[in-house]
User: Fold AMP-dependent synthetase/ligase domain-containing protein from Venturia inaequalis.
Amino acid sequence: MVAVTPKALVAASSALIAGATYIDAQLAITRDVQQIFRDKRYGKAIGNRFQALRNNASAYGHLLLADPSAEALWFEGRTWTWGQVKKETDALAEILLQHGAHANTFIAVFMTNSPEMVFAILAISKLGAVPALVNTALRNQTLLHCMGLADAHMVITTPDLTEHLIPLTGEPKMANLCVTLDFGSYASFRASASSTQPDHFIQVGEADLQSVTVDTPAAARTAKDIAALIYTSGTSGKPKAVSVKNDRFAIVSVPAQQDADNPRKYFPMRVFSCLPLFHATALYTGLFQAMGTSGTFCLARKFSASGFSRSLAECQATRVLYVGELARYLLKAPPSPYDKAHPCRVASGNGLQKDVWLKFMERFGITEIREFYRSTEGLAKFDNFSHGAIAAGKLGFQGPIANYMTTDTILVRYDTSTEAPWRDPKTGFCARAKKGEPGEAIGLVTGMDFYPEYLNNPEANDKKLITDVFKRGDVYQRTGDLLVRERSGWIRFHDRSGDTYRWNGENVSAGEVRELISSLPGVQDVTVYGVKLDGYDGQAGAAAITLADPSPHSEKLFVDQMFTRLKATGLTTFQVPRLVRFSEQIEVGATFKHLKTQMQTRSWNPKKQTGKDSVYWLDGESYRRLDAKSWAAIQHGKARL
Assistant:
């Protein structure tokens, strides 16, 4: 019998531990198990929230659960407790009731960020009506379209927007009554308020709230009832109205489990938002997360890159919300002494690009990025609450265990020829995307009672749903987003399914090209899209770029090296953009999403250029100025594209 020495036992144990540690790291076992248990605790907390709401699952029901003595709202130095918010809300609800508001109707909310907007949303909810949150950037026919979708007979607005509603008087889709609210937030507009407004325009001020008697009980609402209409951005057509159910408000009012597990670090929560309150990120992660934790919602009137860090310091926010390109705009602003003179350490939102992620953290002293993959109407979801550079630009993480057990959000193989999930020709079912393979994210539909459908738009609803995915009768919701689960387990965004264009017989991912151009030195912002040219098959790749230094000298240096640098990133020749436009600014919507449709309508004809844009074309392996002669060659299909 061989004797085993203590040294041998120690060595064997060390080897065993090292092996187990290596396997755990490779398979992310501990990480997946921890997340599974976090999800269970979070699910239990959501269940407790529903029980507490009882027969009032509306937005107003959450207000009743908030601590009345806790600070609720901060706006330009003014503050309200949750008790004071309730008092204002109750009084406003009485006034709206007197003017014809009632349960089971839609009331358009066309308001800029303000306490008045918060009170309006909650007051409408108390009456059992539904706020239709209209984008304040909309005008004329598009504005009427949104009110018409809701069949809104009343619109609530603020003094700064009233002038855009007056010209719509008499239009078939225009509301019968316009209520303008000003409880002290719009002093600069009072002097200019028209005394000749149409008869169906009324104004409600602070004095009106003080004089009303409150005696109307809150309407009973269930989790299945519609809580709000939130409109899509309309970047691919006219806005659609998403029917958000009360269950969604209950879910987003529950803090992330990471917060609940460490209350001393994260509570009391003070959330700062300069995003528009008609947008889901500000509404969900701002107002309702603050209300659900009896925290403070710090609201800015509008986005200001130059005043951002000062606002953080003034309101003493502990977390800030972002969306889309907001962080990129903030990095453009000159440095401020307030950039790190604030207690904010957490930034939460979606759409933060890899090339600005770490720069944003460093400049503003942010220690945690909470990137979440969500959409207003979407069921598919991922969260990236990880720390460190490796997490930058990622949507979430799934090890083998989590990937196997997850059924609510799945990446399925995608067929680029049909622009739909691939189906096995033998079984007719879809298949999960392999590691490293772009797959469309789909979300499980467990029932239609809580489904966030497009209001009065069955065609759009049908396009979002896919059936018989893995078995007969199952239903999933499509996102149109192509994501990749890397071999490491990290999930990253790849492209929008509609953002893939075909050139030289090859499919080109606009998102991939954009990401690589963004990584080049000197690039401030970029968007990539396909352009149809006569005489060429498919669509030529086009890039609109803004440079950090837009001087002619910097532009020339960038253009001279652009092709070589793009090839060095790994782009193939067919992926390199054939047309390049340098602009002072790339247009974005109110929610900071690139308005590609606006860029696509700009002509490439050098004779039709407006503003200060400069345009180039790829001649072989170098970019040249696009002049009339070269444009004529392109138009006749004779250029070497």
Notes: The longest strand covers residues 475-485. The chain has a mean pLDDT of 91. The two ends are 79 Å apart (CA to CA).
